[in-house]
Each structure stands twice: as C-alpha cells, then as structure tokens.
C-alpha cells in the first residue's frame, strides 16, 4: 500500500512538472520561434507522456 501511494505521488509530481515544462516551453517558443511545427511536436511529446503516466496509474 505504501509503495502504491508513493507511486501515485511520483506520477502526480511528474505531471505537474510536465505542465510547468509545457508552459515555459510555450513562452520560449512564442518569444524566440515562429515555427509552429516545433510547437506541435512539443505538445505531442507532452500528450504522450501524460498518457503514459495515466496508463501506469490504471495498472494498479
């Protein structure tokens, strides 16, 4: 039970870090890049990592 709880906390913090990373990345791309392809690629990576952490969550 403890290990399950610790895993859930890790997933939660990982998602928060990813969201902050996305916000910072969006600001940087808006300021320095006008390449929409890079922005799309960043969103794709974020979506994949969020989905993979959800899958881990539902494995328990």
Would you summarize the structure shown here?
This protein is an all-alpha fold and 60 residues long. The chain is 92% helix and 0% strand.
How would you portray this structure in words?
It is a single chain. The protein is mainly alpha-helical and 60 residues long. The protein has one domain (2-59). Helices cover 92% and strands 0% of the residues. The chain is built from two helices and no strands. The protein has helices at 2-32, 36-59. Helix 1 (2-32) packs antiparallel against helix 2. The longest helix is centred in the first third of the chain and has 31 residues, at 2-32. The radius of gyration is 14 Å and the shape is elongated. The chain starts with a helix and ends with a helix.
CA-atom Rg in angstroms: 14 Å
Beta-strand percentage range: under 5%
Structural class estimated from helices and strands: mainly alpha
What percent of residues adopt helix (DSSP H or I)? over 70%
Poorly predicted segments:
none
Mean pLDDT, all residues: 70
């Amino acid at each position: 039970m403890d290990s399950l709880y610790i895993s859930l906390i890790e997933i939660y913090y990982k998602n928060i870090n990813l969201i902050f990373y996305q916000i910072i990345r969006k600001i940087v791309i808006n300021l320095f890049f006008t390449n929409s392809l890079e922005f799309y690629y960043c969103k794709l990576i974020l979506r994949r990592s969020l989905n993979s952490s959800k899958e881990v969550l539902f494995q328990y």
